[in-house]
Amino acid sequence: MLSVRYGQLSAQERSRPGIRRENSSIQAEFVTLVGVARGVLCGRIMNTNIVERSKQILLELGATPIMYLMIVLSVVSVAIMIERGWFFTTVSENIQKLAEALAERLNGHDLNGASELVATSKSAEAAIVAAGLKQLGRGAEAAEEAMASATALQRMRLERRLAFLGTVGNNAPFIGLLGTVIGIVQAFEKLEQAGGVGGAGSAAAVMGSISESLVATAIGLVVAIPAVAAFNYFQRRIRATLANSDALTHILLAYAKGEAAASGGERSGTRRAPSVREPSEPFGMQRISTLPS
Predict the structure, then answer these.
(1) Minimal CB count within 10 Å: which of 41, 61, 209, 285?
(2) Are 230 and 84 in contact (CB under 8 A)?
(3) Where are the domains of the chain?
(4) Given a cut of 80, is residue 136 above it in pLDDT?
């Protein structure tokens, strides 16, 4: 319309300054509209190319690599479950007996015996108490800081490789869902290729592709459920271990603070107050008796 309007003007009208400026603006608008149309057309073509390329990549990739990835993740998860289960079995300790033996040696002021007791144990609780016994000569605060440091180190030791189980448990269903989406894309591609042919053969091929794609989601759930269950179980074991070690550290700190108070009372010339605890019941047993074995 802009070009028709420009062509209807006479030569004299075109030579006028006002008409000349108007013609220039009309030409500029026309060029702008042509550029916008070209840009929209190129954008649509580019978007179409991206979609087509993505679809071709998915069709060439298929769901088979996703299946192999799920199998690898499943094997690694099972290996970590076995390794962590064996580890927690080897470091398990009868915490009730260990606490009673430790309190007995501390009540008898047998620090060497207490050190030998925790040195022979492979449990994380014993390793934490051993760190406190090494710094016991420097006071209760030094022993407490040493046991806090040992607790952090033992926590990392207990939580080793569990992050992989948590990651697999959270993401395996999504990986399986990706395989399902790829399978559905393949099914619709087969349906598009069949076109208007119809028939039982094409319908069976499409239904077979969809059923195969759902296998990926099923495998993802099979991989994720045991990983999540094992992760939660090991986390519960870690919490119980740290709770037991906290009870043992309080037994050692009670002894250290009691010795510090006794030595301070002797230096000041004051008489120690008699203990209200029964002689047959060493300190620390009331707290530890409520913990699970």
Answers:
(1) 41
(2) yes
(3) 2-59, 62-288
(4) yes
